[in-house]
Amino acid sequence: MHEITAHLFTVPIPLLEKIIRPIIVYAFLVILLRVFGKRELAQLNPFDLVVLLSLSNTVQNAIIGDDNSVSGGMIGAITLLVTNYLVVRYLFRHRRLDQLMEGKPATLIKDGHICKSEMARELLTTAELQSVIRRQGFEGIHDIQTCILEPGGAFSLKAKSPSAEVQRHAELLQRLDVMTAQIAAMEQKIAGG
What is the pTM of this model? Predict the structure, then answer.
């Protein structure tokens, strides 16, 4: 029993190294994801998802080293969580640095028209954008007034509002319905009276 617990909880590398490794990998991944953009965070296609999953597996050994102990894994996980908490808290208090780290939103559709330069900068195809729009419950790009890819990888969509002509048509139909009801009431009054 002693041998099992020794393998489970004995950390074969120094504690300071166990703490420094995840911090270095964390900083590296934050910079890497910032350089490669919002697309990786949005996970638009199977290739992006495969890259993110492979990336986590690739850096696993860099985080834990030659350590397969439960304690080593716990130390690595706690270090990552604490590092992330401290970074998020620091960036919350320093908004300008946060904006610099996150980047700016990309307007993909503006006034109902696709912004091809922004699409190219974000390496998005029209088919991928169409897929995102359908997942949000719209029929297609023609229904969208504005689409923004946020720095965190989320899409903000604003539907087109009805045109002035469509609104005027709806108002005319509503007025016709009111007039029809008034005429019917007058006819009923005349017939009854």
Answer: 0.60
